[in-house]
Amino acid sequence: MSDQVVTRFAPSPTGYLHIGGARTALFNWLYARGRGGKFLLRIEDTDRERSTPQATEAILRGLTWLGLDWDGEPISQFARADRHVEVARQLLAEGKAYKCFATQEEIATFREQARAEGRSTLFRSPWRDADPSTHPEGAPHVIRIKAPREGVTVIRDRVQGEVTIRNDQLDDMVLLRSDGTPVYMLAVVVDDHDMGVTHVIRGDDHLNNAARQMMIYEAMGWEVPVWAHIPLIHGPDGKKLSKRHGALGVHEYQGMGYPAAGMRNYLARLGWSHGDDEFFTDDQAKKWFDLDGIGKSPARFDLKKLENLCGRHIAIMDDAALRHEIEAYLEAAGRPALTPEQGDALERAMYCLKDRARTYPELLEKAHFVLTSRPVEPDEKAQKALASVSDGILEELTPQLQNASWTREDLEALLGAFAEAHGTKFGKLAGPLRAALAGRAVTPSVFDMMLVLGRDETIARLTDAAERIRRS
User: Fold this and answer.
1) Which run of H or of E encompasses 144?
2) DSSP-derived secondary structure letter, 249
3) pTM of structure
4) Does the annotation list 243 as a binding residue?
5) How far apart are CA 360 and CA 321, in angstroms?
6) What are the tens digits of pLDDT across the range 230-248?
7) The CATH number of the domain where 390 resides is what?
8) Which of the residues are catalytic?
9) Same-domain check for residues 260 and 287
10) Does residue 297 surpass a pLDDT of 70?
């Protein structure tokens, strides 16, 4: 096996990229990237009826949003059918596979009878050792591999441990169907071998497949990759994650405004751990990720934990990068794009927006004060806050702001003294000021908004609000 680690993600393009698939891709990506290896992408599009170009596009889009870059071009399994057939023909020529002329009806009858008699329903083809001279000429047939009949097959799995399967439980698996097309099990092995895959990291629903796939590796004299079968993801109720739990495609999480960095962090922690670390960067994840840290039990998907981690990632993100991600989110969600002026203003305000937002919609709601323009329309709660003060108070404040030096310290001192002069605390004034500056009741601090908006815009908004109070 090559010294370089090569992993792969091999989705079927029959639908969107779901959370389980995204986590499998992430584990493969982390394992390869943390070891200077290659992460390859293969589209398993052999099911021609269900595979669609739109689904392939959705998978590529989901991986790109998650930041999981792959090496080289994605490989189409369907396009490699000739190579898969070539391997089956080689095994046939070497006597490691055989032509089976048993019909579907014969196999069904055998199974029914075996069930009725309480015997094993494992089909033993009478053609396995038949003399080729007895083959019916031109009759339809499949090509089956000769499975070992005695002893055991041991899957040495880095997550599940050693799994032993008795060889008398293995059937002579079909390699080529009667129409000459290769089966999925053959295609997977040939592709993994030809792509130089050293580690197969995939869901544990494929664990039994490993025993059958090993028959092909061994018959061809190829080195078996390192197996790592990871537990599935369950919903909060402990049952397999499904649409019932609101399980969505990865692209829908982008459209809901979760940052990709938070999603990567959360998915990495689903079923894998590094001590007690919950929050970590990509660089730390690449350095720490190992197969030994993957648990054997299914992980539970928890939206609250995802939101918590996303909030922590938003808080540490570079302002320009955050602006770029928010613009991509708006496009994905089908929301109106920011104007260049709004984008600049948002970036300027980022320092007072990103601390407590867990998603981009939350951050944009807090940013309303800088994205809106005069006259600022107050919502219902802001309207009530404005109604609690007289227009005179706001009018009295504006000339004092005209002469203030525009620093946080001076603004805090000025507004504190102004409130005191009116026999109240600044807290009582804060609500109406928020309403006047942002048209909202929940905003960043009044001082942050003033600093971001600047003197002229602040005074203009207070003047507008005083006018509104007077008219009401």
Assistant:
1) strand 142-145
2) B
3) 0.92
4) yes
5) 13
6) 999 998 888 877 766 665 7
7) 1.10.10.350
8) 243
9) yes
10) yes
